[in-house]
Amino acid sequence: MASVQKVFVHIGPLKTGTTFIQAVLYQNRDALLRNQVVLPRETFGQLVRSVLQLMGRRMHPGSRPEDARQWQFLVDEIAAADAHTGLLSMEFLCMAPPKAITRMVRSLAPAEVHIVFTARDYVKVIPAAWQTTLRNKQASTWERFITSLRDAAGTAVPSSTGLTRLLPRRDDRRADTLGSRFWRQQDPRQSLGPYLDHVPADHVHVVTVPPSGASPTLLWERFSAATGLDPAAYDVDVRRTNTSLGAVECETLRRINQRVSGRIPGDSYSDLVKFFLAREVLELREQSFPLVLPDEDRAWVDERTADAVDFFASSGVNVYGDLGDLSSSPGAASARRPDDVSDSELLPVMEETLASVLLEVTRRQGLLPYDGPRSHEQPLPPPEDLGLTGDPPGPGERHEARARRTAPDPPGVVAMKAARRQQRRALRIAASLDAGHDADTAGGLERERRASKRAERAAAREHARSWARANPGKKGAAKKGAAKKGAAKKGAAKKGAAKKAAQQAANKAAADTLGG
Fold it and tell me: Which helix (H) or strand (E) holds 147?
């Protein structure tokens, strides 16, 4: 990495303006490179895969051989860039384990690694975080979420820097409760503290999120100051997503999750619920009363805020903005909570939701040739045929599901994936026809695309075979372990057969005795 001297790594955490910052960065990717700043990975999705691979997590089942090199792809792009600064922003990094942090710092050497942490008032973060859980299949009530945050506890441990930081309790880490997960992301002692064991404090930059009513570009200006950018040189006119939902809209989404989470595949949920329903329907309607943290919960939140401010002030990190932005004065709190929403308030939102989803599904199906009735003659397979539980996921179930992803897809999932591939193929051909191509040309383009995909898969398989040849020890160890497991099963089978034969002989002897 001869040319890049510094790499700024923005680790979030979630709900602290990360979506806005990332949208501005990727909208100005070419302009950044012209100013000698490289933003690695061409798309944000590629960046997510690189970060997940760094952290030892898989994004989806059936990962490809090249997924094992996703982080190295990012490092190689930075090394090959004609730039003096590298910059990446991915909020999952606030949960990176120490092993991943060590690998990140070493892989980016000899460039200086600088960590950027955006901090926001907890009073604003907590309602936004509950909405995020609802957009990701959870169905916890507002009261349960607040209780989990209030009761979450941690264990104080000293770090190599001399500062004290909190680790979640062991049982919390195993159960992955809502509260412990929230504070693992938002508490700087837990999320930023581990980075201070690997990066000097003067290479850590804390950016405070401006309070409500501030200039919409102030966050970008503070982020630019932390990363050495000229804020005026870039276009910040981006579409704002993740708009806050009202309490009635949140309760609508929560009740839908109660019915569909665990009953439809994750891809279908993300497509229809997380993106279409939440963003294109619920976000765009006139919102009901806002989510506001009740005054009776301010005391324990203020204690957490004071602890975070003390950590920033005593750790020697650079602060951009005002730490006072993290403490908001009590406002006009709503007397109502989402759990108080009545069925009569939900009814019109549910009607609008149902109509919008039906129209969207009809619009999508209208692009395909009619192939017979779907709903009655070909209903959705039962949840168990799709490998689903039929119930909303509880604490810890996501980890168990992640461990089951290596298993083959159930038959129902295989059939649904095949149908979706056929649908996407038909849509591409229709788009080619709309673009003015004749039927033969459209079909030829589709065949070329499929041939290219086959070539990519063949190259990936060859890469896997090359890796196996270059690492025979690891492959041999895996075979040896499998052989031991097989031998153990065979021994157990022989033992069981011998026991069964002995029992049969004893039964025969007893029968002969009785018969005599």
Answer: helix 142-151
Integer CA distances (angstroms), 266 to 278, 388, 406, 417, 425, in order: 15, 10, 16, 12, 21
Rounded CA gap, 339 and 33, in Å?
49
What is the phi/psi pair of residue 319, to 5°?
Answer: -115, 130
The two tokens of residue 104 are 């990140």
* Cβ neighbours, 10 Å, residue 322: 12
Residue 176 gets the label, from left (phi > 0), alpha (psi -120 to 50) or beta, of left
Which token pair is 92?
């999952």
Contact by Cβ (8 Å): 71, 119: no
Rounded Cα–Cα distance for residues 144 and 126 (Å): 13
pTM of the model: 0.69
**Encoding tokens for residue 418?**
């095949």
- Residue 338 DSSP class: G
Q: Where are the domains of the chain?
A: 6-124+154-243+295-330, 408-461
Distances (CA, A) of 329 to 123, 139, 323: 10, 30, 14
Which run of H or E residues covers position 464? Answer: helix 439-470
Of 63, 54, 109, 118, the closest CA to residue 89 belongs to: 118
Q: Rounded to an integer, what distance in angstroms lies between the CA atom of residue 57 and that of residue 48?
A: 11
* CA–CA separation, 279 and 414 (whole Å): 29
Give 85's strand partners: 6, 37
Rounded mean pLDDT for each run of 10 residues along the chain, 516 residues in total:
86 95 96 96 93 81 64 95 96 96 96 98 94 92 92 57 48 58 95 97 97 92 98 90 85 93 84 88 87 87 95 96 87 73 93 89 65 48 56 51 56 72 76 74 80 81 79 59 63 66 63 52
Nearest in space to 138 (alpha carbons), one of 181, 172, 185, 184: 181
Computed on alpha carbons and rounded to an integer, the radius of gyration of the chain in Å comes to 27
Got the DSSP string for 250-267?
HHHHHHHHHHHTTTS-HH
Q: Which CATH number fits domain 6-124+154-243+295-330: 3.40.1000, 1.25.40, 3.40.50, 3.30.1370?
A: 3.40.50
Rounded CA-CA distance 18/120 in Å is 11
Question: How far are the Cα atoms of 489, 498, 499, 500, 504 from residue 495, in angstroms, in the given order?
Answer: 10, 5, 6, 9, 14
Grouping H, G, I as helix, E, B as strand and the rest as coil, residue 87 is strand
Residue with tokens 């384990």: 97
| DSSP code string of 55-84 | TT--SSSS--GGGGGHHHHHHHHHHHSS-S
- Longest Cα–Cα distance of the chain, Å, equals 105
SS3 166: strand
CA distance linking residue 199 with residue 105, whole number of Å: 8
Tell me how far apart the alpha carbons of residues 463 and 457 are, in angstroms, rounded to a whole number: 10
- Report the pLDDT value the prediction gives residue 389, as an integer from 0 to 100: 55
Amino acid letter for position 271: D
The 3-state DSSP composition of the chain as helix, strand, coil percent (nearest 5) reads 60, 5, 30
Q: How is residue 515 written in tokens?
A: 């018969």
